[in-house]
Amino acid sequence: MSSRSHGGRLTFLGAAGTVTGSRYLLDASSSRVLVDCGLFQGYKALRERNRARFPVLPSSVDAVVLTHAHLDHSGYLPALVRDGFRGRVYASAGTIALCRIMLLDSAHLLEEEARAAIRHGSSRHEHPTPLYTVEDAMRAVDRFTPLAAGETAVAPGVAVRLRGAGHILGASSVYLDVEGSSVCFTGDLGREDDPLMRPPHPFAGADVLVAESTYGDRHHSEENPEDALGDVVRRTVRRGGVVLIPAFAVGRTETVLLHLSRLRDRGEIPDVPIYLNSPMAISVADVYRDHPGEHRLGADEIERLYSIATPVRDVDESKLLNLRGGPMVIVSASGMLTGGRILHHLRAYGPDARNAIVLTGFQAGGTRGKRLLDGERELRIFGRDVPIRAEVVHVDSMSAHADADGVLRWMKGAPREPRVVYVTHGEPAASDALRLRIGRELGWSAKVPDPMQEVDLTERVSPEPALQG
Questions:
Q1: Structural domain that includes position 187
Q2: How far apart are CA 370 and CA 356, in angstroms?
Q3: pLDDT, mean over the chain
Q4: Count of domains in the chain?
Q5: What is the pTM of this model?
């Protein structure tokens, strides 16, 4: 990596060639700022990057700015602080409130996984250790500073402002001025028609745009998510089965509960027990209550969606659900079946054809959710192969991400053309598809960066060819 230079340089430490591990390093002549500090998830080769030495000394980073709280954008912070980062972490108030919950929960789960690996002998390491501890997460939480409206200097030569991105509570697009160059990071853009979150603020323009491409090669289904969810609940209940809904504890859980509450209120699903088995999702309820201006729901509807489900807080209550049997609905994390209490329910109810598993959003490559989506019907869970005979349903229309059309509409609102768009945070096919559409439909220069690629923020980039050879 070259030395810091006037005008600024950007290095893609993560989210290049993959949809996880969002980490972007900005070097100015006298400071260094990291935008997002996420975990790599999915394929084992990606997860192993979390254990690798950070590409620069953490102590050399002056500040971190977060787009939002999801762990693929924030989850590496405890390790960065443990290994020497001593600056401040800047984010919206909503993101900070969620991170205080999510980082501690992540650390707790990592410690639990390490203990379970020791008990079951399921690790190739003689002494399995967590990536970071609860104590590490608590130190990271202490480094947060909320960003108010307007522009804030976060390091010498680097100023930042946030604009709402939809997606989840507190999510923002990050605009930075770096020694005369303006850079915008979209973060994860939400949908214009999201039932829970407000739409993203229009693109305000920048010299350089770093754009996510999670759904860069896809269009969201026109299917009504409540109709799809109601159908699967009704037919599973008729079979006497259990509906398992893996859901991200922040954002997706609230959307699922919102749809279930509306279905129940209209009498379109049977009055069977609904359980929310996610301590983190239960804790997040207060954050939504405390930030009413960031979502579409009134106080009454917030209370209704949380009251429809029985909260499951302790481990013994969670275990009893696996003995109860159907009919019932269980909403539990994680959304891509990578960990958490949902795996215990999957092991208990997945082998029974009367039951159903409802996938409610994007499933990254290498996750159990993606393998189910691709038709695999045997999953490795806690060191054992579990046959999956339950019905598998994908409700794609419940995604909280903008699809390719939505991202392009957001870009078209720009008051001026950026010098270059770097397309990141997507699987390779999705990123390249969005790159092609940006060039063809907007006439902008767009590139898909390589992992660890370093670029000059002042350089004018020629468009890539329309077809790769």
A1: 9-218+400-456
A2: 16
A3: 90
A4: 2
A5: 0.89
